[in-house]
């Protein structure tokens, strides 16, 4: 008989951690400033993670796109110049930061694969809430989670783009509207951002909308 370990919730009697446990843990974290000129700045920031999962906190930021290439994931981030952002990069257990390296800990492996599925020295992702909706309600979320220190993972954000004009032949202008997010302390907030620029006459007026929005809210206390 194989000796194993299983951790249960005493209140519910449910298995919390066993050889089939799966969760993401903190691989690294960093703080950086988004610099540039203009009303808004879009930068590319590359993180090392095999999962591509990054949570953000501190400043208002919008994730325009995410591109993965092996263990390198590049985020296109839009914010006002001078915005400070903190990023929490998550990965699977074998890539954890291994906190408390001098302390005695516990590892649980899958006996069939030998893979470490849980390491008590890692800091695992703690989900607080999953929120979602459609339309402009994505602009005005303001939620408090008492006792938490929040970061947010943007699944998708409400955004719309259109070209319009004052007459049949213009002048024409291009408008971009999107929702930025800010997780700071125990509060999560989204707000509307907008740019408008002059545009050459298009072949007809055009528009595109991403109506659905969703965010994972996580707790980074003690991270």
UniProtKB/TrEMBL annotation:
Q: Which domain of life is it from?
A: Bacteria
Q: What is this protein called?
A: Uncharacterized protein
- Native source species: Vreelandella aquamarina
């Amino acid at each position: 008989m194989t000796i194993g370990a299983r951790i249960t919730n005493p209140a519910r009697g449910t298995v919390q951690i066993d050889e089939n446990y799966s969760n993401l843990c903190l691989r690294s974290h960093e703080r950086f400033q988004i610099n540039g000129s203009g009303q808004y700045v879009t930068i590319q920031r590359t993180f090392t993670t095999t999962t591509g999962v990054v949570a953000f906190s501190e400043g208002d930021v919008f994730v325009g796109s995410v591109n993965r290439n092996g263990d390198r994931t590049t985020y296109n981030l839009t914010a006002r110049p001078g915005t400070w952002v903190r990023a929490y990069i998550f990965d699977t257990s074998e890539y954890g930061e291994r906190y408390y390296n001098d302390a005695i800990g516990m590892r649980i492996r899958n006996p069939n694969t030998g893979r470490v599925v849980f390491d008590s020295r890692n800091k695992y992702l703690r989900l607080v809430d999953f929120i979602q909706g459609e339309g402009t309600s994505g602009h005005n979320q303001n939620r408090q989670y008492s006792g938490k220190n929040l970061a947010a993972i943007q699944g998708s954000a409400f955004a719309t783009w259109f070209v319009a004009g004052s007459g049949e032949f213009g002048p024409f202008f291009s408008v971009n509207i999107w929702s930025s997010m800010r997780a700071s302390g125990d509060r999560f907030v989204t707000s509307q951002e907008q740019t408008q620029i002059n545009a050459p006459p298009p072949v007809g007026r055009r528009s595109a909308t991403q109506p659905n929005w969703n965010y994972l809210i996580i707790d980074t206390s003690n991270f």
